[in-house]
Write a structure and sequence with these properties.
- The strands form five sheets. This protein has a seven-stranded mixed sheet with strand order 9-10-11-8-7-14-15. A three-stranded antiparallel sheet has the order 1-6-5. Strands 2-3-4 form a three-stranded antiparallel sheet.
- Helix content is about 45%, strand content about 15%.
- The chain starts with 15 loop residues before the first helix and ends with a helix.
- It folds into three domains: about 120 residues, Roll (CBS-domain); about 170 residues, Beta Polymerase, domain 2; about 100 residues, cca-adding enzyme, domain 2 (Orthogonal Bundle).
- It has about 450 residues and is of the alpha+beta class.
């Protein structure tokens, strides 16, 4: 009897104190806290619709950001959010088909004030979705302001163990400690402490995490050449670090990024004093020249091959804008979640299977230089370009003609800097990429042998 998670055991001849100690030990190893809405939601202010905007305007937002629906929200007299309903792409399409595109969203939205809180259980979320038939549920704080959104897709992915936040924080935290030198490790811990004081979250993302999971000691690890994504305002956080620890900040407001330079002004002195007990006089030497902070953001492309337009978003949507699933992993730096691995888009299974896979079918259309990058990763790690990804790559080859020569040259230079560049060059030739770049460009086995001989 009892609920589905109940268990019982009968032990003979065992002392209560010993059994209790064993149970506590096993619980610490195996028990997982029940997931809540906070574990699934996309944090941050979601895109929202004004009830008086036209259906055509709403449809344009849906196409731009690729979402199936948005909450419809107005503001009350005190400046707080007031949820009026939700408007989906299906309703927009039907209204436009009927010639109603110039009508206000409020006339055809699904009315209601359906929402959940971060601490609500998954059972509560599922019941709200079933009762309301809403596929997108706003997440609100105690004051009723919208602080995120959780979707039906998030709930479905929960059934797949690989999509859940990885709770092996201790194991991954230990791997971080083994990979970095003491000064670098403590610097990341310091960032976690400081970011939490600002009520933000910080994550190490991308190639560094990929290499960490592959147990590859990369140049990124040796120099701490990493992007640190801030769920919050990265520029404000960089300024906070500058005020407290010195250095200089270079801001790029358009993209919400900031570079914290540690080799200028008084930053080395302040940080070296803070870290001196870890490495003595070597603390200065082990400091990275800079750290890059990036505001979690989403992006959309107005047309193929052009640079994207970006907007502040959540870590989940930030990871979705990346090139391949193997580069979508993130490690949390906040003290209470130190070393927690986020894998929303299947990066870990693809790492284990040795696959290079795009996140969506228009990835190469959005940025054709990813074609060259796919080959570079495939050959560097002895992976395989996933079959559907290879089809999409072939379909997008002609778009390389629209890319500026400077960007093509940059990607080719990165390929030629690999340990065995001839492998990637042969693969570029096999896939027809070199010929697409120039009719006379090719790579033969004899040429590959010359590459190897030059080493």
């Amino acid at each position: 009897g009892g609920h589905s998670r109940a268990a019982a055991a009968h032990l003979r001849g065992a002392r209560l104190k010993t059994v209790r100690a064993q149970i506590e030990h096993l619980v610490r190893i195996h028990a997982r806290a029940a997931l809540t809405v906070a574990d699934l939601m996309s944090s941050g202010r979601p895109q929202m619709l004004d009830p008086d905007m036209t259906i055509i305007q709403a449809d344009e937002m849906m196409r731009r950001f690729g979402h199936e629906g948005f909450p419809v929200v107005t503001t009350d007299e005190e400046g707080s959010d007031r949820l009026l309903g939700v408007f989906t792409r299906r309703e927009a399409d039907r209204a436009i088909d009927h010639g109603l595109g110039d009508q206000a969203v409020r006339r055809y939205m699904r009315s209601g004030e359906v929402s959940v809180r971060p601490e609500d259980s998954i059972v509560t979320l599922r019941r709200r979705m079933i009762d309301s038939n809403w596929g997108q549920i706003p997440v609100v704080d105690d004051g009723g302001d919208i602080i995120g959104i959780v979707t039906r897709t998030d709930l479905i992915k929960l059934w797949d163990e690989a999509s859940r936040p990885d709770r092996r924080a201790g194991e991954l935290g230990q791997r971080l400690r083994q990979t970095l030198n003491p000064v670098q490790h403590h610097l990341l811990e310091l960032i976690g402490v400081e970011v939490e004081q600002m009520d933000y979250d910080a994550y190490v993302v991308g190639g560094f995490v990929r290499d960490l999971m592959l147990d590859v000691v990369s140049r990124r690890a040796l120099t701490l050449d990493v992007d640190i994504v801030i769920e919050g305002d990265a520029i404000a956080f960089a300024r906070h670090m500058q005020r407290k620890f010195g250095g200089r900040v270079v801001e790029h407001k358009r993209f919400g990024t900031a570079k914290w330079l540690l080799t200028s002004d008084d930053a080395p002195v302040k940080l070296a004093a803070l870290l001196a007990d870890l490495n003595g006089a070597g603390a200065l030497k082990d400091l990275p020249p800079h750290l890059d902070f990036v505001t979690a953001r989403t992006e959309f492309y107005t047309e193929p091959t052009v640079l994207p337009t970006v907007q502040q978003s959540s870590i989940k949507l930030d990871l979705h804008r990346r090139d391949f699933t193997i580069n979508t992993l993130a490690l949390c730096l906040n003290p209470q979640r130190w070393g927690e691995l986020l894998d929303f888009w299947g990066g870990l299974p693809d790492l284990r299977a040795g696959l290079v896979r795009v996140l969506h079918s228009l990835s190469f259309v959005d940025d054709p230089t990813r074609i060259l990058r796919a080959v570079r990763y495939e050959q560097r790690f002895d992976f395989t370009i996933e079959s559907r990804t290879e089809e999409l790559l072939g379909d997008a080859l002609e778009l390389l003609d629209r890319v500026t020569p400077a960007r093509i040259r940059h990607e080719l230079e990165r390929i030629l800097q690999e340990d065995r560049p001839e492998k990637a060059m042969l693969r570029l030739d096999e896939l027809g990429i070199l010929e697409q770049l120039h009719a006379d460009l090719c790579m033969t086995s004899a040429m590959a042998g010359q590459f190897a001989a030059l080493r």
